[in-house]
């Protein structure tokens, strides 16, 4: 069974899509995998539960699973932008105590997690990022430019909220001669209004594109630049853009350095001048070809997790 915090799917972003991909990966690996909800079976029928959050409300799912005797695996998807309070940390450590194993998708993520939590006595599993097969396609149509009328543009898809830092891109692109397209669901309406209020005529906000759709793929494939400047780390959306061969400007950090260092230009997400200069320089270069080693099918990506489950 796959579970997460109760409010997760209210606003679907990369974390929620990753849960769906994880279910697909487990199914391809020969497991019966359900996301907790009206279509899942009785909890006693499952051999394991993989929980993808330590966020608020997680205890309402974790504790009943513990009472049912189901071994728990944590897929934390956690990166603090500001230091958590001692009370918050204590509550998460309490929840962590119920898990037998913790899954990380990068060494950087594991190192960040270990700054705050003790993993003694728990199995640590390293898997690869889950990449949907949609982003390995060739021959993508030009439907995005045909639909919206853009010619030369940068694209930033994803949840719109302060932590993701779209405002930095707005300020940088206000003085650039290229369109910036921001497409995503809105988690913070006040932040969206602030971004809109500062945006020049070359900055456009469009509705979220269906994940993996022809429109989504086309927006990436025909872009001049992919931009993502969060205060945490870019995550799966940047992996998808790299697989599509996008030129990228990403936030500087350990995660990007580990996984995408030779696929992008890294910048300080709070330095508008550096962002603007890096974009200008990158647009003068030829388009980057994705690394052959980047795409990995879902079954192979979670093989270490499957090995742990099989040997438990």
- For CATH, the homologous superfamily of the largest domain is named as Glycogen Phosphorylase B
Residue fraction in strands: 5-15%
Shape: globular
> How helix-rich are the residues, as a percent range?
25-40%
CA-atom Rg in angstroms: 20 Å
Class per helix and strand makeup? alpha/beta
CATH architecture of the largest domain: 3-Layer(aba) Sandwich
Spatial strand sequence of the major β-sheet? 8-7-6-9-10-11
**Highest-level CATH class of the largest domain:** Alpha Beta
Treating each run of at least 4 consecutive H or I residues as one helix, how many helices? 13
Topology readout:
Layout: E1 2-3, H1 14-28, E2 49-51, H2 59-67, E3 72-74, H3 86-96, E4 101-104, H4 107-114, E5 123-126, H5 143-148, E6 153-157, H6 166-173, E7 179-183, H7 189-198, E8 203-206, H8 214-221, E9 225-228, H9 236-243, E10 248-251, H10 254-260, E11 265-267, H11 272-282, H12 298-301, H13 303-311
Parallel strand pairs: 1-2, 2-3, 3-4, 4-5, 6-7, 6-9, 7-8, 9-10, 10-11
Helix pairs in contact: 6-7, 6-11
